[in-house]
Design a protein that fits this description.
The complex is a heterodimer of chains A (431) and B (263). With 431 residues, chain A is of the alpha+beta class. Chain A folds into 2 domains: 246 residues, P-loop containing nucleotide triphosphate hydrolases (Rossmann fold, 3-Layer(aba) Sandwich), CATH 3.40.50; 122 residues, abc- transporter (atp binding component) like domain (Coagulation Factor XIII, Chain A, domain 1, Distorted Sandwich), CATH 2.70.50. Classes of the chains: A alpha+beta (431), B mainly alpha (263).
Chain lengths: 431, 263
């Protein structure tokens, strides 16, 4: 197979302050004047957005690019798309390249849907004849037939997005560079887009795909490049690269959450929560918590006197402060006769964390029947749940599907006498 | 691949995008069709009325024995195209920032589209000129056929000047405030309000260094009867136009690589 994209020691340097800011002519002239008078060059701080990036991608490969915000993923795509130039290094991209850094680039509000399809298609590198041939299919994909001759300024943001993606989905480049375009839009549309991406994959085209949606990356891309601080940190099989990428989150999370320093707490203080850990099934700290994970919440405590029949509780809140669930030893019927002064821990084993990806907050309490609170910590720690391919469908759950998900299986019993069925049963059949 | 031919090959590849950019600009401009078309006429025609009243009526500026309205209007046509185009082109890169930072295409497409779109206004305003010629009983001679030819240096000059300002504007945002001032001075340094014959002989050589002088005088000579194109003046203007265009194109090419980083 031939090489489709090759990067050879690509580096990109930005001057600090240069990014997204232009000088004024006046400033430039005073700088020159100052330099002439003081005879010294002003010190310019620089930053390497990319440093010594090298890789080759074969024709037909679908490669994901992952990394934290500001790691250089987007800069790399911009360099490969020739939007910006590397400070040093060489790169080669074979054939026609389309870069999709944004959906609906160049849409003009005053132009109609039809006119914008032509304009946008042309901007993305399609030929006029090609766009015209695909017009019907694009319109159908975007589902905007009735509004085709309406200026897009009257479109809803959802319609604009659909139209933009519809054009992009009809590109037939040799290589496609996609940047996080799936981060926007409603869930149904995201599914449709991922479907279109999947088609690209089977059509033998080279695709580079930047995303924070690790589930989508894992599903679409057999190979993943991990960019960290402008350098390639790993390049290889997607599963292993994503795993090692995720494990760096553990390093930064350290050994759980220290609760001793929490100031706003209520209760008598006879016993205190000292630390909370999130562990995996294997008892090791979880680098990152994903939807559907099996996990152990380990609460460390320190008792200052003997406690009779203590109960432990963990409450999960949305970031809007709504209580989603409370797990505690009281309702579970788990009784501890007494605790002696000293330290210990208690584990809450959660079989499946049925929370959709989002940030949640945990409150903890320690009490005895009465109720009498020993220690009460409200919203003392955040719980970030990351997306996962929970249903093994390549489509991860997102917060737009709600807060929780119910694990379920579908079964279809087939059609029964469609022609003579009543209107009511017609409604049940949805081909 | 031949490296020298590469940019040209690329421009050819992107010719449809260029077409669509011109199409977009024109479409948007004339979307509210009545106002768009009227504006193309009002601007030079209104200016002509004001000039006729103040410069000819009150200030008694001569017009080489032809009616002042047609004398000034025949020069205002190319001038209006020129001033509107360099304003438009000068801001074009900044106003197409969203495209520059998201898609690759030869950056020169943007200013080039700006230079072409003004021709529609020019054509509309030219219809009024024909009307004026009929009104003043001027027989349109064969020389009028030279207008399309004269448009070539005019467009080249507008693109050259506009492109330079556009590239400077990306880096130095206050250049956009300089441009209106430049245009104002340029209007007075070009024989539009006054005839070249008003300028003392020894200054005329200097006047010819203004590339617009020869071009606009040539436009005018094609309209007025019994007038010949001053070929030496036109030649000087063409040479200066070419120099300006080349300098501008080189500067543009040199800075285009960094547009996406700093725009």
């Amino acid at each position: 197979m031939a090489t489709a994209i090759s990067a050879d020691n690509i580096s990109k340097q930005y001057r600090l302050g240069e990014l997204h800011r232009s000088l004024s002519l006046r400033e430039a002239l005073t700088n020159v004047a100052r330099r002439l008078v003081t005879r010294q060059r002003s010190h310019i701080e620089t930053i390497w957005a990319l440093k010594d990036i090298s890789f080759t991608i074969q024709e037909g490969e679908v490669v994901g690019i992952i990394g934290r915000n500001g790691a250089g993923k987007s800069t790399l795509l911009k360099v490969l798309s020739k939007i910006t130039y590397p400070t040093s290094g060489r790169m080669r991209v074979r054939g026609r390249v389309a870069s999709l850094l944004e959906v609906g680039t160049g849409f003009h509000d005053e132009l109609t849907g039809r006119e914008n399809i032509l304009l946008n298609g042309s901007i993305l590198g399609m030929k006029k004849r090609e766009i015209e041939a695909k017009l019907d299919s694009i319109v159908e994909f975007a589902d905007v037939e009735q509004f085709l001759d309406t200026p897009v300024k009257r479109y809803s943001s959802g319609m604009r997005l659909r139209l933009g993606f519809a054009v992009a989905a009809h590109l037939e480049p040799d290589a496609l560079l996609v940047d996080e375009v799936l981060a926007v839009g409603d869930a149904g549309f995201q599914k449709k887009c991922l479907g279109a991406m999947g088609n690209l994959h089977t059509s033998g085209r080279t695709v580079l795909f930047v995303s924070h949606n690790l589930a989508a990356v894992e599903n679409l891309c057999p190979r993943v490049l991990w960019i960290d601080k402008g350098r390639i940190r790993a390049d290889g099989d997607s599963r292993s690269v994503i795993q090692s990428y995720l494990s760096t989150f553990a390093e930064s999370q350290g050994a759980g959450t220290d609760l001793r320093t929490v100031e706003h707490r209520k209760g008598s203080g006879d016993i205190r929560c000292t630390r909370m850990e999130l562990l995996g099934r294997d008892g090791k700290p979880l680098p990152v918590v994903r939807s559907g994970d099996e996990l152990v919440i380990r609460l460390h405590y320190q008792a200052f006197r003997r406690i009779q029949e203590p109960h432990f509780g963990i409450e999960v809140y949305t970031n809007m402060g709504t209580l989603i669930t409370s797990i505690n030893t009281w309702t579970t019927g788990f009784n501890i006769a007494s605790l002696h002064p000293g330290e210990g821990h208690i584990d809450a084993h959660v079989n499946s964390l049925n929370l959709n990806p989002d940030r949640y907050y945990l409150s903890l309490w320690l009490a005895s029947v009465g109720p009498r609170y020993y220690d009460q910590l409200d919203h003392c720690t955040a719980l970030d749940v990351e997306p996962a391919d929970v249903n093994r469908s390549g489509r991860s759950m997102t917060k737009s599907f709600g807060i929780v998900f119910l694990p379920c299986h579908w079964r279809h019993n087939g059609y029964k006498d469609v022609h003579t069925s009543s209107a009511a049963s017609d409604l049940l059949i949805n081909p | 691949m031949n490296s020298a031919a590469e940019p040209l090959r690329e421009l050819w590849y992107y010719r449809e995008l260029f077409y669509f950019m011109v199409w977009r600009d024109i479409k948007v401009r004339y979307k509210q069709s009545l106002l768009g078309v009227l504006w193309a006429i009002i601007q030079p025609f209104g200016t002509m009325l004001v000039f006729t009243l103040f410069f000819h009526g009150f200030a008694k500026i001569p017009s080489d024995d032809v009616p002042y309205p047609i004398f000034s209007y025949s020069a205002l046509l190319p001038w209006t195209y020129f001033s509107a185009s360099i304003t438009q082109i000068g801001n074009s890169l900044v106003s197409n920032k969203h495209l520059i930072t998201k898609v690759y295409f030869p950056r020169v497409t943007i200013p080039a589209a700006g230079a072409i779109r003004g021709l529609v206004d020019f054509a509309i305003a030219a219809i009024i000129l024909l009307g004026m010629m009929i009104y003043y009983d001027f027989t349109p001679g064969w020389k009028l056929l030279l207008w399309p030819v004269l448009l070539i240096p005019l467009v080249t000059l507008a693109l050259g000047v506009g492109m330079l300002f556009a590239a400077l504007n990306v880096r130095y945002r206050d250049v956009q405030h300089v441009l209106p001032f430049v245009i104002q001075l340029w209007l007075f340094m070009t024989p539009i309000i006054y005839p070249t014959t008003m300028v003392p002989q020894r200054w005329r050589g200097l006047l010819a260094l203004n590339p617009l002088t020869g071009i606009i005088e040539a436009f005018r000579a094609c309209v007025l009867p019994n007038r010949h194109i001053d070929t030496s003046m036109l030649g000087t203007s063409l040479a200066v136009t070419l120099v300006i265009f080349l300098i501008s194109a080189l500067y543009f090419k040199w800075t285009a690589r960094s547009f996406a980083d700093i725009v």
